[in-house]
Amino acid sequence: MAIAPHQAQEFMTNSELLLKLLLQLTVILSTCKLVSYLGKRYLGQTDVVGEMLAGIMLGPSLFGMMAPNFQQWLFPKAPILTGEIVFPNPSMSILYALSQVGLMIYMFLVGLDLNMDLLKNRAKSAGIVSIAGIIVPFGLGAIAAFGLHGQDLFSQNVTPWAAALYMGASLSITAFPMLARILQERGLIKTKLGTLVLAAGSLDDAIAWCLLALVLASIKSSMNVAIIAIGGTLAYVLFMWFFGQRILRIFSYWTRRDGEVTMQTLTFVFIIMMICAYYTDFVGVHAIFGAFVLGIVMPRGHFAESVHRHLEYLTTSLLVPIFFVFSGLNTQLGLLNSPRLWAIALLIILIAVMGKGLACTLAAKWSGENWRNSMTVGALMNTRGMMELIILNIGLEQGLITPTLFTIMVIMAIVTTVMCSPLVNWLVRDNQT
Length: 433
Prior knowledge:
The chain is mainly alpha-helical and about 425 residues long. It has a single domain, classed as Na+/H+ antiporter like fold, CATH 1.20.1530. The chain has 20 helices and two strands. The chain has helices at about 15-45, 45-55, 65, 70-75, 90-115, 115-120, 125-150, 160-170, 175-185, 190-220, 225-245, 250-260, 265-285, 285-295, 300-330, 340-365, 370-380, 385-395, 405-420, 420-430, and strands at about 80, 85. A two-stranded antiparallel sheet has the order 1-2. A hairpin with a 2-residue loop joins strand 1 (about 80) and strand 2 (about 85). Helix 5 (about 90-115) runs parallel beside helix 14 (about 285-295), helix 11 runs parallel beside helix 14 (about 285-295) and helix 17 runs antiparallel to helix 20. The protein is globular, with a radius of gyration of 22 Å.
């Protein structure tokens, strides 16, 4: 890989790396907090929306335009050249590692939040909404991918079928943690409507992430690699479902014995989480899938509540914002430099809203809800939030999509997320059932 002379940099000492990291974290957390506060105070948006926008602001689209030299010094994406050997910039490698650890813990908590009782109680309605929210956007996304393939949006080595699988999966995602937070803020978490949306959203995300695992496995260049990825992932899921749940009950026993999740118990949780994440990454599927499945099969009740209480604030306040900045650094609005690309962006937004929002609205109506409740379900299921950014970053890291398509999809994620809160506020203002 050829590197321009101006991109060559010197290695930094450990002390210099620490100082750079401290400054990076200061800028990241301050910006995310400020933008989130303004978004919530004046626009009624959730923290996730503010953090998504803050990530883009710190990237080349705003910070890079206003102070390009300082932005490149603070978040240096250029690799280090030593002779003919190219190394990733250690400063960004540290941030990347922190963001990935944060994502693993975050996805573990998402899995831990999935309430299987909700699925049992509203299985039929939730199933109808969830299936509609998977099949329709997946089909529309796949059709769009066939039409967009060959237009410098997917990597050259990605086949049309692989592009269709990835685009379909990425448009099927629902931001389950965000819709749960919105329902909590609106006092709808225990209502009939809230139960339906939580059940449908949890089932939707479980299916979507399993689908993503299959997509990542199926696009491997070697058939043997694909077989190992699919077989290894299936074996992991089956083992965790039929045997892991029984083994992990020891955590519930320890919690009842000690009255609380102790440091020792939490340490064992981390150890198992890292092993599961390592395994799924090793067989060819992303590490966060291993953590997500582990969260699903973990004991519920006091243990789950205590673990969530111990991990949530550190993860969402420190580690998750790092991930948003990484997404922002890869989002380059300047790449959309033609009417054709902006037309494609508008088309994808339309497909996303029609495929997810409208499909879930009609499915909810068909399952017996009134039109106001049905539209609320559609608005909540249509939000993508951080979950979409995760799958987009995976696609970029795996070499499936180009930075241009990444930017288009991030815009889609922001639009569908931003439109959720005002729509829900309007729809539920006189409807608390």
